[in-house]
Design goal:
Elements: H1 7-18, H2 23-37, H3 46-52, H4 56-65, H5 86-99, H6 106-119, H7 121-129, H8 133-145, H9 152-169, H10 172-176, E1 185-186, E2 192-193, E3 202-207, H11 214-223, E4 232-234, E5 240-242, E6 249-250, H12 256-261, E7 262-267, H13 279-296, H14 307-312, E8 319-320, H15 332-336, H16 339-351, E9 367-371, E10 377-379, E11 388-391, E12 395-403, E13 406-409, E14 415-417, E15 424-429, H17 434-449, H18 453-464
Parallel strand pairs: 1-5, 3-7, 3-8, 4-7
Antiparallel strand pairs: 2-6, 4-5, 9-12, 9-15, 10-11, 12-13, 13-14
Helix pairs in contact: 1-2, 1-6, 2-7, 2-8, 2-9, 7-8, 8-9, 13-16
This protein binds zinc ion.
Zinc ion binds near residues 206, 322 and 330.
Length: about 475
């Protein structure tokens, strides 16, 4: 048995599923990643640990801090896919820098992996459509990972790993009935029905009417005589508490059918209209709802301003509110009015783990850019494939031509990458020469004075001591 149901494993399964891989495709890929790295994103190839004098953790930290500078060229396999070849390690490192993530960050590596796989069109197509783990596993092995040993024994072993993940994660009881790993406190209440009688397909957000921590909320539900509870409590400090397992039905929304299909979340709030919540609570709520959707296969949150849509789940609506089922203001106007925004942000996170860089608009050339880092590469042409000729250092530079997000330096030194705004920002129209600006100012004043320009010029020169 390979699959353990660990948080990392689940995160990988969910991530790849959301990216559109078929279950057999996800499993076949995961079997190979398991063979490469044990699914550890910080994994440094074992034989290099001694050679380089690093552990997985210290290598990762040294690359992140910039203390270790030979990441690209040390030939050591690293990460989920054990990236080894220098150009792939360079691209991984650039991607980590671009996204501001650690080189050992799971989601960054998964994003990068997907980006790479999409470049292997045949592999990507099989992963999207695979019906058997074996076909997915084989193509990843032979067309993507390409280790030295691709014998039938290796094929069989990797496919067996994949099959194990497949069996584990396509078993609905195992995948659906789990709780969020974001939980910071747990006190399970008796106020519930176990198990729920419907698959989870709805989110119901409530306001708890008190600026409580998750612990206070969970402890309340665990000790009160009142017939009330919620699956989760989000505290004013961003703490997240579990009061009723997701597998069970909470007593939260005054509606049995709703609570059987919904994950209910009580959020710490003010005690008076509009029942505002803290920033920390709101941020934690977004994280929690995203996690619930990912683990339960809710691909998109759909909110509607119409009660009819909500209570009948019309047009895909899968967010409901307590006020629809009882004479209550819950979730309070503060949260009610933010339901559309919550759906939008969660959907962005669900679909968007690949952070497409915002399209950059460039002013007409020439314009200037400010380089924010010491070592922005100057390349011989507009593209990563071109050779590095040097580096700019920090400062302001004039761009005279733009191609595919690369800018040609006025100095003629070469091209720099413009689209990573943590490296380089657009300042705007080229700064005119300050001497021209001053000369123009002086000229305007002389023109307006009625004096003889030649005479004034001669006197200015005399004052400045220039001939
Ligand atoms: Zn409520």
């Amino acid at each position: 048995m390979i699959a353990t149901g660990s948080t990392t494993e689940r995160a990988i399964w969910n991530f790849l599923t959301v990216k559109g891989l078929s279950p057999a495709g996800v499993a076949g890929l995961m079997g190979n990643l398991y063979a490469e790295s044990g699914l550890k994103p910080q994994n440094l190839q074992n034989s290099f640990e001694k050679k380089l004098g690093y552990t997985d953790d210290s290598y990762t930290a040294a690359v992140d801090s910039g203390q270790y500078t030979n990441f690209v060229h040390d030939s050591a396999g690293y990460g989920l896919a054990q990236w080894t070849f220098w150009s792939r390690k360079e691209a991984l490192l650039n991607y980590a820098k671009k996204t501001g993530a650690s080189i050992g960050d799971l989601v960054m590596q998964l994003d990068f992996l997907i980006q790479e796989l999409k470049g292997y069109t045949a592999v990507w197509e099989v992963l999207r459509t695979a019906r058997t783990v074996q076909e997915a596993s084989n193509i990843v092995l032979t067309k993507y990972e390409r280790p030295a040993d691709m014998s039938s024994a290796v094929k069989a072993r990797r496919a067996a790993y994949g099959q194990d993940f497949y069996d584990f994660y396509t078993d609905k009881e195992v995948t659906i009935m789990s709780n969020s790993s974001l939980v910071t406190y747990q006190n399970i209440t008796k106020h519930k029905n176990s198990p729920r009688n419907h698959a989870i397909d709805t989110i119901t957000i409530h306001c708890i009417v008190g600026q409580w921590t998750a612990k206070q909320g969970c402890d309340f539900f665990a000790t009160t005589d009142r017939d009330c509870s919620a699956n989760y409590v989000v505290g004013l400090d961003g703490s997240i508490g579990l009061s009723v397992d997701e597998a069970d039905r909470s007593w939260c929304s005054s509606n049995s059918a709703n609570d059987n299909r919904a994950v209910t979340i009580e959020v710490a709030s003010d005690t008076t209209h509009p029942y505002a919540v803290t920033e920390a609570a709101f941020a934690a709520l977004l994280d929690l709802v995203t996690d619930i959707c990912q683990r339960n296969g809710i691909k998109k949150l759909i909110w509607s301003d119409k009660k009819e849509d909500r209570v009948n789940h019309l047009n895909g609506c899968n967010m409901t509110v307590h006020r629809d089922y009882a004479a209550k203001s819950c979730p309070g106007d503060y949260l009610y009015e933010r339901h559309g925004a919550i759906a939008a942000e969660v959907n962005r996170r669900l679909g968007a783990a690949a952070p497409a860089p915002a399209p950059v608009e460039y002013p007409a050339t020439p314009f200037t850019v400010r380089v924010l880092i010491d070592d922005l590469n100057i390349r011989t042409g507009a593209g990563m494939a071109n050779a590095v000729k040097g580096q700019t250092g920090k400062g302001t530079f004039t761009i005279v031509e733009v191609q595919n997000g690369w800018g040609k330096l006025k100095s003629g030194a070469g091209w720099i990458y413009l689209e990573n705004q943590s490296y380089c920002t657009i300042v705007g129209d080229a700064q005119p020469d300050p001497a021209d600006v001053l000369a123009k100012e002086l000229a305007e004043r002389v023109k307006g004075s009625g004096l003889d320009p030649a005479d004034v010029l001669a006197r200015v020169k005399k004052i400045l001591g220039v001939s």
